[in-house]
Design brief:
TIM Barrel; 8-stranded parallel sheet; 4-stranded parallel sheet; 17 helices
Amino acid sequence: MQPQFLFLTGKLAQPSLTKVVTQLGESVGFEPQVVEVGVSVAALMHADLVARRLASSETNGVEKVFVPGWCQGDLSSLTEKFGVPFERGPKDLFDLPEYFGKGSRPPVVLDEYDIEILAEINHAPRMSDREILTMASHFRDSGANLIDLGCVPGECWGRSAEVTRLLKQDGFRVSIDSFDRAEVEAAVAAGAELVLSCNRSNVEWAAQLDVEFVAIPDAPFGLESLAETVDVLKSAGRRFRIDPIVEPIGFGFAASLARYFEARRRWPDLEIMMGIGNLTELTEVDSVGVNFLLAAICQELGVRSVLTTEVINWARSAVKEFDLARRHVFHSIKHRALPKHVDASLLLLRDPKLREMGADALQQLAAQIRDPNYRIFVEQQEIHVMNRDGYWHGRDPFVLFDQFSAAASEPLAASHAFYLGHELSKAATALLLGKQFTQDETLRWGFLTTDEASAIERRRHVH
């Protein structure tokens, strides 16, 4: 026998809710019941009103009661009175399928990838051991597979071996970025598994070391010098991968991409690396989109490792961005599916979709409100604020605050004014960027989102 779930709603939403939960019950496996509790709009519902208007007989045989996410008040009192659990659902009834795990398509687990991330600690010789370990831990937590110690050109770091051992002891895989023979040999002896880089200037002594190298051209154009370095390393039986060098925009970016295509055609079986930091660090634009496109290029070309870093502020989360991007593109190419409506973790500025009540529903809601609680919405390119004292809308939150505070039948308490200012600030941000705003809920910022307790939850814990 399937469980019975009771859904409470208002008069306006009852037909739509009935249709949604009927279909949902068939797919999830429950028998739905819908009860309208005597309010026109579900957003006006309050636990005290439910306690007065819901008949005990209507909860007989019900396993759980769902109220709209807008419902105010303490639901535990309802659970105690009716002897059945009460739960807040989503604020939008059309989000119920997703709430029950039955969205428009099944969730995708992005747990596969085949591109390795080398995260570089720039100017490592200038940093303390604690700083190096802290940054390495951050990179590892962000998805890096290997920590690259970036040395200072023209100097010889006497502690390359000591720091390499320090990282190895903490479970890190280590590479070293240096052309200095002493630095490299010391780090390799201490456990570094990869050396960046090797060209005709150092290939003779590099070929004597039993470690993997990254072979690069002598200059960032053409592949002939790279071919000579490849031949020497092959003759010595050494392990290596190649990096044709991607150039910054304005300095031959498109031509450098063409080199990667040519390198893959010329050496179909060699491992290739790309130093994507040349784009993310040297392009004054949010790095997430750049990382995604570079991940797609690497995936399609079979570039199985990238070197990146997080020095410039606009790329401060570049490692995590590429970690998520490599999973997206792996899934897309493996399943021949567009990287769309799969996972919103890389949507930082805008949201996948916007839901609006509509002008008529807002007007009806405003006409029905009889309590002093302010409802805030962002729709039709405006912020909308309403309570029993009126309905105000516009684009400037300061003007709106002056309007509704002047019309208030009771003076605003300082704590309430602070709360409204916080919500209006979020609403203004959502209006500016085209994000979904839901009162008492955090704005979504993809993988950067930090969930916050609503004002209701905070006060519930205090009291």
